[in-house]
Design goal:
The chain is mainly beta. The protein has two domains: 190 residues, no CATH class; 250 residues, Muramoyl-pentapeptide Carboxypeptidase, domain 2 (2-Layer Sandwich), CATH 3.30.1380. Helices cover 9% and strands 39% of the residues. It is built from four helices and 35 strands. The strands form six sheets. Strands 1, 2, 5, 7, 10, 12, 14, 15 and 16 form a nine-stranded mixed β-sheet that branches. β26 and β27 form a beta hairpin. The radius of gyration is 27 Å and the shape is elongated.
Length: 529
């Protein structure tokens, strides 16, 4: 902290010499004590707010409780917190700059996107903020009155921002230069009125600016990743686009597309706007498929690249329709009761593997694929009678959000899937499941254990099935397939007469009485859209 700089009107910095720090700072001085990046955390049902530091000295962990070797991601929303003493209501200027020229070919201050209450971001290079002004905590209605401990932060200057420039071309240039490296970001701060103040544990008030996060006491490390930001439907900090105004229906997911990374990180923000890093997956680009009626002769299929055999699975009791998949250069042949050809298309699609746990074995049992249970958010799902465990990242974000909100609303059902698509984008015997575009889910039961049932069974949990289907719809699964039915033997009275699950089409050929089929997902908009 001995180094000081001064911030010019353009947001650029000049280096000055600073004083040495004493063992005991003078508490009577006007002082900027700490500057750090943070994520917001709330407690007491969203009525108390605090900040959790995110830097190399405060390492975060992933869903497997493994240390994460970075602190944030280009494009992600973070808070910049400036803690002060004896500086009530004074204004502070801050700039953020890279510690090396890895990302921008220089170390000039960065233009980043700053939150402007109540619901927008604007590009700024010089961030001016008043101590005690808590607009950065405002929700989309322009208030933060729900936080009963706001006075705890009266000596802080808080900035909410996104770690990205305002244009896609510049963002792509940053990510191209950064590649798989890490960039450290430093922060320079100074009183707006240019009067002196002390920095850190400095022994005197000095003119000029102080620089933070520039040594081994804590560095802010930023990397390239793809990001999905997923909001609980009741989160009032969701400022994404309104789909319908009355009643208001708002998009719930946004992504930051990063063309220079294949890793995808899924973040969920609960009803109180707490951040949850759900999981990380690697996306793979594969050739799109389409099921066609005519199977080409062997000579037109291209080289045989892979044979995936399901003999052992079927012998163990897995109800898998395909006997084997023959993956050719020009498409995939699904070998089953009736062979189906999935022809390669001219473009590609990104797929990720949903089976995060990767439990081994074969058989008719449910294979648990993921179980996130942290800080009041539970996401648990499995697979049964299927090896179609690949999905598009957009749909996976919608699936995770749906399961998180369903569980947070008090429904404890184990969600089990009958499959989406195979890893090569084929989906024997279906036509609609290609390219990870559709999935089948076991129907819910009153036992809540994931074991499947049928629409007319006594243990079919119609009321909760309706709730889940509506949540899936709100998270983007616009279409579905089920059957018209009536059920007088279960506990619900709502399905005593002929009815169908909401947002579904009656489809009895093939039968849809033992699962919910969801498809027609609304594409998620990129942050630069």
């Amino acid at each position: 902290m001995a180094t000081r700089i001064t911030i010019t009107d353009s947001g650029q910095t000049q280096t000055l010499n600073g004083p040495l720090a004493p063992d005991t700072p003078d508490n009577s001085l006007q002082r900027i004590t700490e500057v750090y990046f943070a994520k917001k955390t709330t407690t007491d049902n969203g009525t108390r707010v605090n900040f959790t530091k995110i830097d190399s000295a405060h390492v975060q962990q992933d869903d497997q409780n493994q240390n994460i070797p970075y602190d944030s991601i280009l494009g992600k929303t973070v808070y910049l917190v400036i803690e002060t003493s004896n500086m009530a209501n004074l204004s502070i200027d801050a700039v953020i700059r890279p510690s090396a020229n890895t990302m921008t070919d220089n170390t000039d201050t960065l233009q980043l996107m700053r939150f402007v209450s109540p619901d927008r971001y604007e590009a700024q290079r010089l961030f001016t903020v008043q101590v005690g002004n808590l607009d950065a905590l405002n929700n989309r209605n322009g208030n933060h009155g729900h936080y009963t401990n706001a006075n705890d932060h009266i000596n802080k200057a808080i900035i909410k921002l996104q770690l990205r420039p305002d244009g896609r071309a510049t963002f792509d240039d940053w990510t191209r230069r950064l590649g798989d490296q890490t960039i450290n970001l430093e922060v320079a701060v100074e009183r707006t009125d240019n009067n002196p103040c002390a920095y850190g544990d400095g022994q005197e008030e000095v003119n000029g600016a102080g620089i933070f996060l520039n040594d081994d006491r804590g560095r802010f490390r930023v990397v390239n990743k793809n990001i999905y930001t997923i909001y609980h439907g009741s989160n009032t900090y969701n400022t994404l686009r309104v789909i319908t105004p009355n009643p208001e229906r708002r998009r719930r997911i946004q992504k930051v597309r990063n063309t220079h990374s294949t890793e995808v990180i899924f973040f969920y923000y609960d009803q109180n706007d707490n951040e949850h890093r759900i999981c990380a997956r690697t996306k793979e680009s594969v050739t799109r498929k389409r099921r066609v009626n005519t199977i080409p002769p062997l000579a037109q299929r291209g080289n045989l690249l892979e044979t995936i055999d399901f003999t052992a699975n079927r012998a163990a009791g897995e109800q898998i329709d395909a006997h084997q998949l023959l993956v050719y250069a020009n498409g995939t042949l699904g070998d089953g009761a009736t062979d189906k050809w999935y022809a390669n298309q001219t473009d590609s699609v990104d797929l990720i593997n949903m089976d995060i746990l990767g439990n081994q074995g074969v058989g008719p049992q449910i294979f648990e694929a993921f179980h996130y249970n942290q800080n009041g958010v539970v996401i648990r799902y499995g697979f049964q009678h299927t090896r179609r465990r690949s999905i598009q990242p957009d749909l996976f974000a919608g699936f995770l959000g749906s399961l998180a909100q369903f569980r947070q609303e008090g429904h404890n059902h184990y969600i089990v899937s009958q499959g989406f698509s195979y890893s090569d984008a084929s989906c024997y015997p279906s036509a609609e499941h290609v390219n990870g575009e559709a999935g089948d889910l076991n129907l819910l039961t009153t036992q809540q254990n994931g074991v499947n049932t049928i629409l007319t069974a006594a243990n079919f949990d119609y009321d909760n099935q309706v709730i889940l289907r509506n949540i899936l719809f709100e998270f983007g699964f616009e279409s579905g397939r089920s059957e018209d039915f009536s059920n007088t033997s279960n506990t619900s009275a709502a399905d005593n007469t002929s009815i169908r699950l909401p947002h579904t089409t009656h489809t009895a050929t093939p039968r849809h009485n033992n699962h919910l089929h969801v498809h027609g997902f609304t594409p998620i908009l990129d942050i630069y859209a």
